[in-house]
Task: structure prediction
Amino acid sequence: MIELNSPEDVDIIARNGYYIALRVGFAFPLEEVNALPAPWVDHYTTHRFMLHDPVIRWIYANTGAITWSAIDLPDPMRVLHQAQTFGLRYGVAVACFDGNREGQRSFGTFARSDREFEQAEIDALHAYVLKRHHAKAPPTNLTNAELEALRMVREGLRLKQIAHLLGISEGAVKQRLKNAKNKLGAQTSAQAAAMVGEFGLI
Result:
C-alpha cells in the first residue's frame, strides 16, 4: 500500500504535474495547488477548456477515482488529445464529496507521460485528496460568541467598537479572538475572519 503525506510524495507519482482543488463551493476552492506545466495551463486557460473538459465534467458528476482513458464522455474540443502534446498522456481524476450541507467537493487530476497509473497509485491519490478534504472541513468547535466577534472583524470594526457593541470589555473581545485564532490555526484575527467566511460560518 502506498501512502502519500506531502506534495513531494504526489510529485513522485504524478511526474508530469497535477492540480488539486479543496472544498470547492459555488465558485472558488478554499485551497488549490496547481503543479501542472505552465504552458499547458496557459493553453488550457486561453482556450477555456474547463467548460468542455471531460475530466472536469466527470469530477463534478461522480466521486471516487478513474483513469482519464476510462472516462466515457464526449470531448468535442479534444482536450485530452491536446493535453498529450504537453506531456500529459496518462491521467487520473479523483473526486470527493462527503454530503456536507455547503455542497463543497474536493478533486484532483494527476498526470504522467510514461504509463497508466497503477491501481495502488490511484488508491493512494484518492486517499490523499480525501484526507486533505477532511482536513479542510469547517471547524465545529467555534462558539457563537467567537463567530460574532469574527463577523465584526470581517466588517472592519475596531476592537473598541466591537467591545462597545457587544457590551463587553476589550479584554474579553481579545480573548474571544485569541480562542478563535487558536482553533483555526490563524495568525491574525483578520485571517481567522476570512477563514470562517470561506467556510460559510459567518
The mean pLDDT is 92. The radius of gyration is 21 Å.
